[in-house]
Write a structure and sequence with these properties.
The chain is of the alpha/beta class. It has two domains: about 1-125, ABC transporter transmembrane region fold; about 150-385, Rossmann fold (3-Layer(aba) Sandwich). About 50% of the residues lie in helices and about 15% in strands. It has helices at about 1-15, 20-25, 30-80, 85-125, 185-195, 215-220, 240-245, 250-260, 265-270, 285-300, 315-330, 345, 365-370, 375-385, and strands at about 150-155, 165-170, 175-180, 200-205, 210, 225, 305-310, 335-340, 350-355, 360-365. The strands form two sheets. Strands 6-7-8-3-9-10 form a six-stranded mixed beta sheet, with helices on both faces. Strand 9 and strand 10 (about 360-365) form a beta hairpin. Helix 3 runs antiparallel to helix 4 (about 85-125) and helix 8 packs across helix 10. The longest helix is centred in the first third of the chain and has 53 residues, at about 30-80. It is elongated.
Length: about 400
């Protein structure tokens, strides 16, 4: 019953959370049928449980009654034969009643025990999942400068299948480095290593010349501000979502961060402005608005390392240019890692690194890579067509 109820809840949650997608593909009927199937299976499991309980508990009561009657008949026979006193029989029956009472209670506990066992199995299954990052313990990472060093890193999510192969690069304070490459090249894996989600299998990842594996993971993450691919927002006010980057940020700092992310314009048009509740996962905002709030949240953290993982993919080129220029001015000493596919974003970087198949295959300025059509044709497609030369004559 617990398993079927879980399936029913999952079907309802998925269908409701993806309501826009369901409507876009006209699959409301399919989702209704899927929910109805899960509901029937859940109801059938519950009915089976009720039937078992309806049989089991009365059976336990009947067994107790038959046992008491049998003892009373045998005892009465002994009393009539003069081998047992009536008082002894009465005392024995009272002790028997005291014995049956907890046994009957155990029969009522049996169904609760079964449900608890199912829950315990689910909890155990979760606890037995090996963590992606073992508890480092160790000291807290001290405040560092914006210096990132990745040295000979080889890492794989599964044994024998490395996602990164001997990758090495550095980002100096104040430098903006773009990380580009086809899908599956390992760009997001590098972001995960910088955020201490995993330890590299080989090599080191360092901030400010300090290897991350030597320090507590939480203290390492305090030195990195990240805007991830999916801009996650809480069902709270705009100010609270921005202040999540640094809980002691003042209202003036929150407003300044919103201005850098070019979010102040649309915030000012909202009825509640910074006190507007954005809804679950920011459902009341557009994709571009959610991204700008996520950027503002990273800015207000004022960390020495800033990671932008497809952080401007939902912005138009004009707004994207304004946001990236403002970030460079607002974070002049931060080391910035910019993961992007569009040349409109990559062109703001001082240097670009090219990942292919988990290897760092090239680096240079964005303009140099754009000219390498014979080697990085996918990059020219992302960047957009090269302008045609002007026509001669009329």
């Amino acid at each position: 019953m617990r398993e079927r109820t879980s399936e029913l809840t999952s079907a309802a949650e998925e269908g409701l959370s993806a309501i826009a997608l369901v409507k876009a593909f006209a699959q409301a009927g399919h989702e209704q049928r899927r929910f109805a199937t899960a509901a029937r299976r859940s109801a059938a499991a519950r009915l089976r449980m009720v039937r078992v309980r309806a049989v089991f508990q009365p059976l336990a009561e009947l067994t107790a009654g038959i046992g008491t009657a049998a003892v009373a008949w045998a005892g009465a026979s002994q009393v009539l034969a003069g081998r047992l006193s009536l008082g002894s029989l009465v005392v024995f029956l009272s002790y028997l009643a005291s014995l049956y009472t907890p046994i009957q209670g155990l029969s009522r506990v049996a169904s609760s025990l079964q449900r608890a066992m199912v829950g315990a199995e689910c909890v155990t299954a979760i606890l037995d999942v090996p963590p992606g990052l073992k508890d480092r313990g160790g000291a807290r990472l001290p405040p560092v400068t914006g210096q990132v060093d990745v040295r000979h890193v080889t890492f794989g999510y599964r044994p024998g299948r490395p996602a990164l192969r001997d990758v090495s690069f550095s980002i100096a304070p104040g430098e903006v480095v773009a990380l580009i490459g086809p899908s599956g090249a390992g760009k997001t894996t590098i972001v995960s290593l910088l955020l201490s989600y995993y330890d590299p299998g080989q090599g080191t990842v360092s901030l400010g010349r300090h290897p991350l594996r030597d320090f507590d993971a939480a203290s390492c993450r305090c030195q990195v501000a990240a805007v991830l691919q999916e801009p996650m927002l809480f069902d709270a006010t705009i100010a609270e979502n921005i202040r999540y980057g640094r809980l002691d940020a003042t209202d003036a700092e929150v407003a300044a961060a919103a201005a850098i992310a070019r979010a102040d314009a649309f915030i000012g048009e909202l009825p509640g402005q910074y006190e507007t509740v954005v809804g679950s996962r920011g459902a009341r905002l557009s994709g571009g608005q959610r991204q700008r709030l996520a950027i503002a949240r990273a800015v207000v953290k004022a960390a020495p390392v800033l990671v932008l993982d497809e952080a401007t993919s939902a912005l138009d080129p004009g707004t994207e240019a304004e946001v990236l220029q403002a970030l460079r001015s607002a974070c002049p000493d931060a080391a910035v890692l910019l993961v992007a596919h569009r040349y409109s974003a990559v062109r703001f970087a001082d240097r670009a690194l090219v990942l292919e198949g988990g290897r760092l295959v090239a680096q240079g300025t964005p303009a140099e890579l754009l000219s390498s059509e014979d080697r990085f044709g996918w990059f020219t497609q992302v960047a957009g067509p090269t302008p045609a030369p002007p026509r001669q004559g009329g």
